[in-house]
Amino acid sequence: MINFKRAIRDIHQNRMLNTITVVTISFAVLIVSSFMLFFANADDILNSWKKGIRIIAYLKPDIPDPEITEIQEKILEMYGVQKVNYISSSQALETLKEQMKRQASLLDNLDTNPLPDSYEILMKPTFRRWDKVEDLAKQITLLDAVGDVEYGQGWLSRFSNIFDLFRVLGYAMVGIFFMAAVFIVANTARLVLYARKDEVDIMRLVGATNSFIKAPFYIGGLLQGVAGGILGLTALFCFYVIIATNISQGFAVGLIQIKFLSIQASGVVLIGSTFAGWLGCYISLRQLLK
Amino acid sequence: MIESNAGDAIIRIFHVHKHYGAKKALIDITLDIPKNEFLFVTGQSGAGKSTLLKLLYLGEAASEGHVLLDGMNLSRIPNNRMPMVRRKIGVIFQDYKLIPTKTVFENVAIVLEAMGRKSRLIQKKVNNLLRTVGMEDRAQSYPPSLSGGEQQRIAVARAVAGDPKIILADEPTGSLDPESAEIIMDLLKGIHRRGATIIIATHDHEMIRKTGGKICKLDQGRLVDFKKADMIL
Ligand SMILES: Nc1ncnc2c1ncn2[C@@H]1O[C@H](COP(=O)(O)OP(=O)(O)OP(=O)(O)O)[C@@H](O)[C@H]1O
Ligand SMILES: [Mg+2]
């Protein structure tokens, strides 16, 4: 406790330097957590899109019912298939009518239903990738009863690959900004230590141990880390609120819903910045006080 | 008048030399200082008084020879044991060595904080000491705002705060008026009475005469005399 008091006293004495350090750390935290926020939301959107990845297999006309269930079974046995929905031509027409709403009356005049029967094939989550979808689609085309196969959203897979690359870049950025935070704290500790060389020498002469001398520095570093983390996250939250309200007012409501970092993710950021504070001190003190 | 009631040697200095480059600050000093001794170290300016004290409080290492303090060989003390040795010793530095950015109170308290004392006890003890040296109303001042004599009194308070076995004082009354000097000397005598060993570097023969004890004289780094204080007149 007495060390805590000493640390507070020291921080008070070096207000300016400590403030600058905390603000700089909070910038690093802001940047890192912005990345995390972006990825968390992009992941969500991407996953909901990926759920929509599916193959539609249109059947040739006049396939008898028993064969329809047989084929359904065959497809279901294929590698990576999660679910197969049979959509009869009449069901398809109903859906089309619903989608067209006002123009649906156009369809009322049709004598025969021009739409084919079809299967909607959903894939297991791990197979929702471009190359897998393509493979599966080829396999399905080989079935006699199947006329045509449609599988869109290949762009999504490709986008997803680019996105993964982007994510690696994100991790690298997180690493860089973590090191930046460590460096900043180390530098502050070093400056303070230089400014107090005489004081440290005197403390030694009156019988202070190294750990007694170091304690306030460590506490100071941890506090800088915590304060920087909280400040950075608070700033992020403010930006988030501003952006979130703008999006929900501007764009179609409900189309994009962005969320803030989870408690766990915020906790990780805070622990990270605190650790950076500690590590910065450790590096400086190890160099300067053997 | 203090009498030498010497017990076993608490400090043994054995063929010690100290060089600063080519400058020889101490030359072949051999000296036993008994427990509870009241010793004055005298000599002209530059004779090596401060240097001798520095070797004792681990401010410097001897270039040659050995210093034994309370049974420990100071030339073989590992860094991590130094604080323990220094806590046996209270030092009044010639240049005071107060921390300018800490208050008078904090400057004295730091010794006890470093020893891990409880803060209530520290509060009481420091206030008592400041009262003894007549500085209680300056507890919240910073050293640079004090006169030399006032700083010296703080330095004395800090030196005795940890109840050390040995007090090393480098000109402890150098910038004090006779009354203040008297107070400081009485304080040191009180600590001596409780069993501590006191070593004072000084030019002040008047003080030596009034106090008694032993005297050791340095001249250009050599020990030239070691005798009872009442022998000089
Ligand atoms: N760090 C140092 N580097 C070089 N020379 C030094 C150093 N410290 C002391 N000396 C020299 O060693 C000699 C003894 O110095 P010391 O400070 O022990 O003298 P002193 O007896 O305490 O003198 P004073 O009465 O003026 O305080 C002096 O000649 C001094 O110049
Ligand atoms: Mg001197």
Provide an overview of this structure.
The complex is a heterodimer of chains A (290) and B (233). Chain A is built from ten helices and four strands, in the order H-H-E-H-E-H-H-E-H-E-H-H-H-H. Chain A has 290 residues and is an alpha+beta fold. Chain A has two domains: 2-48 and 157-288, no CATH class; 54-151, Alpha-Beta Plaits (2-Layer Sandwich), CATH 3.30.70. In chain A, strands 2-3-1-4 form a four-stranded antiparallel beta sheet. Chain A is elongated. The two termini of chain A are 24 Å apart. The model of chain A has no long low-confidence stretch (mean pLDDT 81). Chain B has 233 residues and is of the alpha/beta class. Chain B has one domain (35-61, 77-231): 3-Layer(aba) Sandwich (Rossmann fold), CATH 3.40.50.300. Chain B has seven helices and ten strands. Chain B has helices at residues 49-56, 82-86, 104-114, 119-132, 148-161, 178-193, 205-211, and strands at residues 9-20, 23-34, 38-42, 64-69, 72-73, 89-92, 166-170, 197-201, 214-219, 222-228. In chain B, helix 6 links the parallel strand 7 and strand 8 (197-201). In chain B, helix 3 (104-114) packs across helix 4, helix 3 runs parallel beside helix 5 and helix 4 packs across helix 5. The longest helix of chain B has 16 residues, at 178-193. The A-B interface holds A 1-2, 6, 9, 13, 196, 198-199, 202-210, 212, 290 and B 57, 59, 79-80, 82-84, 86-87, 89, 91, 93, 97-99, 101-102, 106, 110-111, 113-115, 119, 158, 162. The site of magnesium ion (MG) has 4 residues of chain B, from helix 1.
Question: What layout of secondary structure does this protein have?
Answer:
The complex is a heterodimer of chains A (290) and B (233).
Chain A: H1 2-13, H2 15-51, E1 54-59, H3 65-77, E2 81-87, H4 89-100, H5 105-108, E3 118-123, H6 130-141, E4 146-150, H7 154-195, H8 197-205, H9 210-250, H10 263-288
Antiparallel strand pairs in A: 1-3, 1-4, 2-3
Helix pairs in contact in A: 1-9, 2-7, 2-9, 2-10, 7-10, 9-10
Chain B: E1 9-20, E2 23-34, E3 38-42, H1 49-56, E4 64-69, E5 72-73, H2 82-86, E6 89-92, H3 104-114, H4 119-132, H5 148-161, E7 166-170, H6 178-193, E8 197-201, H7 205-211, E9 214-219, E10 222-228
Parallel strand pairs in B: 3-8, 3-9, 6-7, 7-8
Antiparallel strand pairs in B: 1-2, 1-4, 4-5, 9-10
Helix pairs in contact in B: 3-4, 3-5, 4-5, 5-6
The complex binds adenosine-5'-triphosphate (ATP) and magnesium ion.
